[in-house]
């Protein structure tokens, strides 16, 4: 859908919202296309498109062969403003957030997404290529794409941190633990780059995530135990979608980078006990931050407004508590 048409659809959707708020329609109210078109003085076709957009937002429900019905009470619509994705970055983030909120199925086709988001297939192809490169989607064996499994329940998130609290400090204390000074120095420079960066918001999310995951996999790799390394690599794959949905609160990134650097300092000083203590503290900070989020029913999908994510988030898209509030940040 061309940008101008997308904007017109968003504008009409907001006019419908205004009408719903003013009329105090209650959940279950049938939003008839013809009636809305008559009031708003537009044809049924753009009204249908605007209602579909509101359905994508979860405000209304589209019932096959029956039309559209209001899902949200009018008092919950105050301040809601429908915006069409304005840039490829907006659409990239929206796809990730929608998957975490279960608004997208695990498996999908390019045609499905083009219709859902009202974008041209050529533009969507570029977004899918980025998602593929970042490891956030995979090609199906047959047709279409799929999202990988992720830690998007409160139970899964807590279980992951509990598991890592057992494995990662223990890896630092293995008798055969042998650090590689060259790898440690490379990791240190990667972290200092982020700590000293004057415009951290410009650093790609992929670079931030890889700095984090490479740090944890490097240290567990020094344990010399391939089973421990495989376990942490699996955890990082499960974290990837959550981490990429964030990185908005970039101030938190510098906090966890300094925590990582403290662990590297202890390893370089030949103090595995101190490194293990710092690692436990680092992971405990991350778990503690997850508990400061809005409560979610244990075992249920976490609301997109409170999802853990990249090492510092603010809008749903990682590890430890952060000053500005928001979600957990990578660990």
UniProtKB/TrEMBL annotation:
Q: Which residues form the HTH gntR-type domain?
A: 6-73
UniProt KW Transcription regulation keyword: yes
Question: Which GO terms fall under molecular function for this chain's record?
Answer: DNA binding; DNA-binding transcription factor activity
Region annotation (Disordered) ranges: 287-331
Q: Does the keyword Transcription regulation apply?
A: yes
Q: Where is the composition biased (Basic and acidic residues)?
A: 320-331
Q: Which SUPFAM superfamilies match?
A: GntR ligand-binding domain-like, Winged helix' DNA-binding domain
Cross-referenced Pfam families: FCD, GntR
Keyword list, A-Z: DNA-binding, Transcription, Transcription regulation
On the tree of life, the source organism's domain of life is Bacteria
InterPro entries referenced in this protein's UniProt entry, alphabetically: GntR_C (IPR011711), TF_FadR/GntR_C (IPR008920), Tscrpt_reg_HTH_GntR (IPR000524), WH-like_DNA-bd_sf (IPR036388), WH_DNA-bd_sf (IPR036390)
* Ranges annotated as spanning the membrane: none
| Alphabetical list of PANTHER family matching this protein | TRANSCRIPTIONAL REGULATOR, GNTR FAMILY, UXU OPERON TRANSCRIPTIONAL REGULATOR
Supply the name of the protein.
Answer: GntR family transcriptional regulator
Organism of provenance: Methylobacterium terricola
